[in-house]
TrEMBL record:
Gene Ontology BP terms: DNA alkylation repair
GO molecular function ontology, one term from the record: broad specificity oxidative DNA demethylase activity
Role noted for this protein: Dioxygenase that mediates demethylation of DNA and RNA containing 1-methyladenosine (m1A). Repairs alkylated DNA containing 1-methyladenosine (m1A) and 3-methylcytosine (m3C) by oxidative demethylation. Has a strong preference for single-stranded DNA. Able to process alkylated m3C within double-stranded regions via its interaction with ASCC3, which promotes DNA unwinding to generate single-stranded substrate needed for ALKBH3. Can repair exocyclic 3,N4-ethenocytosine adducs in single-stranded DNA. Also acts on RNA.
Subunit structure: Interacts with the ASCC complex composed of ASCC1, ASCC2 and ASCC3. Interacts directly with ASCC3, and is thereby recruited to the ASCC complex. Interacts with OTUD4; the interaction is direct. Interacts with USP7 and USP9X.
Main location group: cytoplasm
Compartments where located: Cytoplasm; Nucleus
EC number(s) from the headed UniProt entry: 1.14.11.33, 1.14.11.54
Record keywords: Cytoplasm, Dioxygenase, DNA damage, DNA repair, Hydroxylation, Iron, Metal-binding, Nucleus, Oxidation, Oxidoreductase, Ubl conjugation
UniProt cofactor(s): Fe(2+)
GO cellular component, one term: mitochondrion
Family the UniProt entry places it in: Belongs to the alkB family.
Name recorded for this polypeptide: Alpha-ketoglutarate-dependent dioxygenase alkB homolog 3
Superkingdom, taxonomy of origin: Eukaryota
Length: 244
């Protein structure tokens, strides 16, 4: 407003904001069966397939009970900045090779449960990929979770294919795009997706999905029954023969 004008002639002058206002984008929801191209970059295409009802609900019911009972579930301890904490979920590992993530090594376990072998073969027939290992997760209730991460350990090779099969309570699988270098690691404005994964649903992640996106299963505020998630993977021996 100009101060030198008499009262009646005062004018409002539009001043452009110095910075363009940026809005935090609303998360998209993927809840219909299909193949989704999430992004395209020099790293490649990030693509997911969502197949609800891959296992019909009657079969999924007894499979869930059997997996809950028979898998040797264990709770692993992480150490971060000298502080140790228990993982907020139970896990189990199957495969000829060990698997290391977040400085935890899961020892080889070639003793596949027959139901897991059958599920692996069903997924292989459907997807055309051959998997050699499996990380099982048990979320006992709404307090269990897995934090933001990518399945990008060197032993998974470039562009890992991950086939994730869910049983039990529906939980939200969230994805967020990794920020561009100009954002300096700030995730505030990145693209986000929410994918409800329910009983018997298969989710396939491929291409650059692990390189360009992160995922998590957050804690819930309302009560949730147990959920089992099986992530079939292809593990390669570490090039230098040393497991980090
Ligand atoms: O439980 C899920 O759906 C995701 C599990 C997961 O992110 C993982 O095993 O790396």
């Amino acid at each position: 407003m100009r101060k030198d004008l008499p009262h009646t002639q005062k004018q409002f002058v539009f001043e452009k904001p110095s910075e363009v206002e940026r809005r935090v984008p609303e998360a998209g929801v993927i809840d219909k069966p299909g193949v989704y191209e999430l992004s395209k970059a020099p790293t490649g295409v990030s693509r997911i397939h969502l197949i609800p009802g891959f296992i019909d609900s009657e079969q999924a019911d007894w499979m869930f009970e059997q997996l809950l009972q028979d898998i040797p579930w264990g709770q692993r301890t992480h150490i971060r900045q000298e502080v140790s904490f228990e993982e907020p979920r139970l896990t189990s590992w199957y495969g000829e090779l060990p698997y290391t993530y977040s400085r935890i090594t899961m020892q080889p376990n070639p003793n596949w449960h027959p139901l897991l072998t059958m599920l692996k073969e069903r997924i292989e027939e459907f997807t055309g990929y051959t998997f050699n290992s499996l990380l099982c997760n048990l979320y006992r209730n709404e307090k269990d979770s897995v934090d933001w991460h990518s399945d990008d350990e060197p032993s998974l090779g470039k562009n890992p294919i991950i086939a994730s099969l869910s049983f039990g309570a529906t939980r939200t699988f969230e994805m967020r795009k990794k920020p561009s270098p100009e954002e300096n690691g700030d995730y505030t404005y990145v693209e986000r997706l929410k994918i409800p994964l329910d009983h018997g649903t298969l989710l396939l992640m491929e291409g650059a999905t692990q390189e360009d996106w992160q995922h998590r299963v957050p804690k819930e505020y309302h009560s949730r029954d147990a959920r089992i998630n099986l992530t079939f993977r292809i593990i390669y021996p570490e090039p230098d023969g040393v497991w980090k």
